[in-house]
Design goal:
The chain is built from 18 helices and no strands. The protein has about 375 residues and is an all-alpha fold.
């Protein structure tokens, strides 16, 4: 091999490491047979401590817990340089987030969605389509990855960080770097917190009734907790209606993930570099199938309120661990390189979501 060829090979290796470093490290850190929990323990323990700190701060200072988990995870990024923590962090950012999404199915029933009627549910669908399109268009206009636009639009349209995690599980690290995903999650969490603070005040300023305010808040605020909290900050009846509207948006998670999976199947390739066969393009990811199964169970069989509450608590805990682990495995230097343009898809999706929800609220109520 000549000196020039050797130099080009080194440059290629460095470039590939920048793009796929987290994936290579994850593969290198995968536990071998016999290691079991001993290999997973360091990463899981580190992630649990960071998530516990985020939960404590959120409880005492009333700050969005997902955002705190992201920030603490980014601050502890230096610890992820130790290969001993990789296996545990990869488990938390992968399996934990999928189980957390499945457990969200206990929060939704078909009966609750039906109370909106065809007009209300159709309005939610229209808002979702416009918001999703705004995220994708914002990514294109700002020169960002289309996958960042899909996550920004999908998360804003459906249920915030939970939807972002579900879509990222489908898109994968090889298509969108963990750094850009972490920055997108931060923007979504911040936008949701701002919306929860201002949308109820705007609804009151404009003299909206309880039902109209509940629809506006439930149809436009990103995360489930912020949407419900914003509704109850207006009034109890508005909070009840905002909860129904928001949970109806959560039911759209499964079809959106399926449609994105079909789009990726046509335009992407399988992990081995070959086109995905037709049956795989139509196959549901297992966590989406699990989510739908729990929705069906909750709709057909009465579920004790304590079980549903416990499932929600466990889901939140698993999603918090997944977010924290993802932030730890991100590259802060790549975050700085992304710049302000990375926020354009989130801002465009947020603005379109609010304007569309406000317009349809005036038409319906």
């Amino acid at each position: 091999m000549t000196r020039d060829m050797a130099g080009e090979k080194r440059n290629f290796d460095l470039y590939a490491a920048d793009l796929f470093g987290e994936l290579h490290l994850a593969e290198a850190a995968a536990p071998t047979r016999g290691e079991g929990l001993r290999a997973l323990w360091p990463g899981l323990a580190l992630c649990a401590v960071a998530a516990g700190a985020a939960a404590w701060l959120a409880d005492h200072y009333h700050f969005p817990i997902i955002l705190l988990g992201l920030l603490i995870g980014l601050a502890l990024n230096f610890a992820a340089q130790d290969k001993r923590v990789h296996a545990g962090l990869d488990l938390a950012s992968g399996l934990f987030l999928r189980i957390g999404i499945v457990l969200l199915g206990f929060q939704v029933t078909v009966t609750e969605v039906a109370t909106l009627g065809w007009a209300g549910f159709g309005a939610i669908l229209l808002i979702m389509v416009l918001t999703f399109g705004a995220g994708v268009l914002g990514a294109r206009l700002s020169g960002q990855s289309p996958y960042a636009g899909i996550i920004a639009g999908g998360a804003t349209a459906i249920c915030g960080a939970s939807a972002a995690l579900a879509l990222y599980a489908l898109i994968g690290k090889e298509r969108l770097s963990q750094a850009q995903f972490a920055l997108t999650l931060i923007g979504i969490s911040l936008a949701s917190a701002v919306a929860m603070s201002f949308y109820p005040m705007l609804a009151a300023q404009w003299g909206m009734g309880d039902k109209a305010a509940g629809f506006l808040i439930g149809a436009s605020i990103h995360d489930v907790a912020q949407a419900i909290g914003g509704g109850y900050s207006f009034s109890n009846p508005a909070g009840v209606y905002a909860t129904i509207v928001k949970l109806s948006r959560v039911t759209l998670l499964a079809p959106v993930v399926v449609l994105v999976g079909l789009w990726l199947g046509r335009n992407g390739v399988a992990a081995g570099g070959k086109d995905k066969p037709l049956w795989r393009r139509f196959a549901l990811p297992w966590f989406v199938s699990g989510f739908l199964a729990l929705v069906a169970v909750h709709s057909l069989v009465p579920v004790d309120a304590r079980i549903a509450a416990s499932a929600l608590t466990l889901s939140k805990a698993l999603l918090l661990l997944a977010v924290t682990a993802t932030a730890m495995r991100s590259r802060p230097d790549l975050l700085l390189q992304l710049g302000w343009r990375a926020a354009v898809p989130i801002i465009s999706a947020t603005l379109v979501s609010f304007v569309a929800a406000l317009s349809l609220t005036h038409l319906l109520f």
